[in-house]
Amino acid sequence: MSENTDVSNIATDTVNSAVDNVSKLPASSSAPSDRYVSAPRRLFNREKSVHQLLGGGQVADVLLWRQKHLSAALLIGSTIIWFLLEKSQYKLVPLLSNVLIFAIVVLFVWANLASLLNRPGPPVPDLTLSEDAVLSTASVLRVELNKVLEVFQDVALGKDFKLFLKVVALLWIVSTVFSRLNFLTAIWIIIILAHTIPFIYDTYEDVIDEHLLRASDEANKHYKNLDAAVRSKIPRAPAKDKAL
User: Where exactly are the transmembrane stretches of this chain (predicted)?
Assistant: First the structure.
């Protein structure tokens, strides 16, 4: 009886080990591994993720709804403020000034009463900027500003006709949209778009990139045809015969 039990145990161990070994084998050739699957094309040939492009910090987490409570609070709070200001016809700058006046008066009275009653003062943080923070921010702004200036320089010098069309179209859209909106509504729309477009794009990145790249390829084809048609109509000076 013991021999049969030992044999059954050995057989069971053998089967289990065989199953484990089979499960560890690589996939079949009909299902290639991720190593051999070409990476999907990304818009603008970028290599960074959306989170990295947004800075990779807390701001990126909020815009991508990775901190849902904070993202919802900012979105709902900005919407409520916009609605109240639009309904009451109150201006933004006077409102901010009155809020600051109220806060300063409360802190001033609190601090003086606390000193008279030997109580702790208001918990005001250290309102200073470190040199490293200022230098890093200035460095980032300098790089981005130089990119913008480089684009405008290329457009002004006529180096890139396609870029010229893009800049003109973008400026026309901005001028048209903001001419119909007041400053407060424009800020609110920017906040709404900042909380929706990055999140939607990060969620459906592959599908959106595929459709946008197809549209970009079609636009490039039409641009090449238009460019060739325009250039063909430009009169050119006849080539001079080389002196013998």
Answer: 69-85, 92-113, 169-194
**CA separation, residue 69 to residues 73, 74, 94, 161, 172 (Å):** 6, 9, 30, 46, 37
Amino acid at 29: S
Between CA 174 and CA 172 the distance in angstroms is 5
What distance in Å separates the CA atoms of residue 204 and residue 47, rounded to the nearest whole number? 17
Dihedral sign for Cα atoms in the order 90, 96, 99, 105: negative
In DSSP notation, 127-178 reads ----HHHHHHHHHHHHHHHHHHHHHHHHHHTT--HHHHHHHHHHHHHHHHHH
Amino acid found at 171: L
CA distance 243 to 168: 45
* 15: pLDDT strictly greater than 80: no
In this prediction the pTM is: 0.55
